[in-house]
């Protein structure tokens, strides 16, 4: 083969290899949610997907893969082809805490982090028929009845679970933990009167409070959230507990930069869309958008924080 043919062949191969990137996406994109349908992450994903479809020109199909506290869904994202056609929500802190506390089938090092979307404060609620009207009511009852009050979370090492443990330490009380596979399950158990307390995120909780299904007693943000201004912080009750759930979008490690950039751009345009902003407020979704560089820095910072916490105060 002469030099001209060699060069032509190389150029042809280069064009063929670049074509999938240049044409991305040319088919539907899967968005994996590692929790049950109807939960806070599922709500964020389905709201987001509708707008990303407009930006990408292809359907964004939300697929729920609950199980093992989120590990099944996170693993499916990691093990997918790194072509941008499978992405998913990763939820802090369980995405980071599970590999710290035990051996998992995924590693946080093997993902491409694209953008953070939501930072939703953890809150504590009771059934609307409950006798408890305040955080102090909970503390008083728990001190008189150690280990009797039950609370539901989305699993060991979840933001909800870590928040409840921090509250127990701060208040000097002992509660009974019941782990569920997703936020929707926790809420159903609370509304059905099967658990005494629900510890989950304020975004969805505020909507249920508006429907007179639950009564939020406190939230764990640094300050009150304007989406639920009547819910006091735990700090106001004298308990320095701050915890939330950061929900961002990631793909398998090694995704082409051009594909990652297209996804990041689609997300950026979505969060800038006035219609999306309005829907997020109504949902409600407490938005906290972080671009690629800031999101990657946040992941590293949080990973180090939870490794230090595990070394001093294991949560299992």
Automatic annotation (TrEMBL):
<keyword id="KW-0732">Signal</keyword>
<dbReference type="InterPro" id="IPR005064">
    <property type="entry name" value="BUG"/>
</dbReference>
<dbReference type="InterPro" id="IPR042100">
    <property type="entry name" value="Bug_dom1"/>
</dbReference>
<comment type="similarity">
    <text>Belongs to the UPF0065 (bug) family.</text>
</comment>
<dbReference type="Pfam" id="PF03401">
    <property type="entry name" value="TctC"/>
</dbReference>
<protein>
    <recommendedName>
        <fullName>Tripartite tricarboxylate transporter substrate binding protein</fullName>
    </recommendedName>
</protein>
<feature type="signal peptide">
    <location>
        <begin position="1"/>
        <end position="23"/>
    </location>
</feature>
């Amino acid at each position: 083969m002469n030099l001209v043919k060699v060069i032509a062949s190389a150029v042809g191969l280069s064009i063929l290899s670049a074509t999938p990137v240049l044409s991305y996406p040319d088919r539907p994109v899967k968005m994996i949610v590692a929790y049950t349908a109807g939960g806070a992450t599922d709500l964020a994903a389905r709201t987001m997907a509708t707008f990303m479809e407009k930006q990408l020109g292809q359907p964004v199909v939300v697929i729920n893969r609950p199980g093992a506290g989120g590990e099944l869904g996170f693993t499916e994202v990691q093990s997918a082809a790194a072509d941008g056609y499978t992405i998913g929500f990763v939820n802090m802190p369980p995405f980071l805490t599970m590999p710290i506390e035990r051996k998992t089938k995924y590693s946080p090092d093997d993902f491409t982090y694209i953008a953070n979307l939501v930072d939703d404060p953890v809150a504590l609620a009771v059934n609307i028929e409950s006798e408890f009207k305040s955080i102090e009511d909970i503390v008083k009852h728990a001190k008189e009845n150690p280990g009797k009050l039950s609370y539901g979370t989305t699993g060991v090492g979840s933001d909800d679970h870590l928040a409840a443990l921090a509250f127990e330490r701060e208040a000097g009380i002992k509660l009974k933990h019941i782990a569920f596979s997703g936020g929707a399950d926790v809420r159903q158990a609370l509304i059905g009167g099967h658990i005494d307390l629900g510890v989950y995120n304020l975004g969805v909780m505020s909507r249920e409070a508006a429907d007179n299904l639950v009564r939020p007693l406190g939230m764990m943000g640094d300050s009150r959230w304007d989406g639920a201004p009547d819910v006091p912080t735990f700090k106001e009750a004298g308990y320095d507990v701050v915890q939330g759930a950061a929900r961002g979008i990631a793909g398998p490690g090694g995704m082409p930069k051009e594909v990652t950039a297209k996804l990041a751009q689609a997300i950026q345009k979505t969060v800038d869309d006035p219609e999306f902003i309005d829907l997020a407020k109504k949902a409600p979704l407490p938005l906290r958008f972080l671009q690629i560089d800031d999101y990657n820095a946040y992941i590293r910072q949080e990973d180090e924080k939870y490794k230090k916490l595990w070394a001093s105060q294991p949560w299992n």
